[in-house]
Automatic annotation (TrEMBL):
The protein's name in its UniProt record: CASP-like protein
Underlying gene: LOC105036743
A GO CC annotation given for this chain: plasma membrane
Record keywords: Cell membrane, Membrane, Transmembrane, Transmembrane helix
Primary location recorded for the protein, binned into one broad class: membrane
Pfam families: CASP_dom
Transmembrane region(s): 41-60, 72-96, 116-135, 155-176
Organism: Elaeis guineensis var. tenera (Oil palm)
């Protein structure tokens, strides 16, 4: 019976290369709008302000609870306000201590959270817009309802969603480029 025996062969170290041939990897620049930048803080504050405006306008009416999509809009903008305010505080902290927020776990968390808020806010704003159009244009019962308040709250939710789009896309791009 012929059995092969393991043989140990020394392995040579790879030759050292010049820095000119293989330059070190360069980190992506902080693009304004990404977490930890002044542009990111401005986007988070805009998201918070418009979501809070949508919430306050909708809560000022007494009959928003009679329509499910308006209740959904209130819930979505509450979550959007809390998420944006939390990340605004994180951005303020990062700017004060000059800390970079490009940690892969942090970027993954920001991307997932922004993606959920992106879909949730868009769905709520679209549902509320549909009901608002139904009430104002199709049924013509604006005299009995607070149509202008509903339209204003829906518009504020859409503007909050528009402010969320760059944050989500930049975080997703940063996560995908790793």
């Amino acid at each position: 019976m012929f059995v092969s025996r393991p043989a140990v062969h020394p392995v040579e170290a790879p030759p050292l290369t010049d820095v000119a041939e293989n330059p070190p990897r360069v980190m992506m620049k902080d693009i304004q709008g990404m977490p930890g930048t002044p542009g990111g803080l401005a986007l988070r504050l805009c998201q918070f302000l418009f979501a809070a405006a949508a919430l306050s306008v909708m809560a000022s009416t007494s009959d928003f609870t009679s329509v499910t999509s308006f209740c959904y809009l209130v819930g979505a903008v509450i979550l959007q306000s809390l998420w944006s305010l939390l990340l605004a505080f994180v951005d303020i902290y990062a700017l004060l201590v000059k800390r970079c927020l490009r940690n892969s776990r942090a970027v993954c968390l920001f991307t997932i959270g922004d993606g959920i808020m992106y879909a949730l806010t868009f769905a709520a704003a679209c549902a509320s817009a549909g009901v608002t159009v139904l009430i104002s244009n199709d049924l013509n019962i604006c005299s009995e309802n607070h149509c202008t308040s509903f339209q204003t709250a829906t518009a504020m939710a859409f503007i909050s969603w528009f402010a969320l789009a760059p944050s989500f896309l930049l975080n997703f791009w940063s996560l995908a480029s790793r």
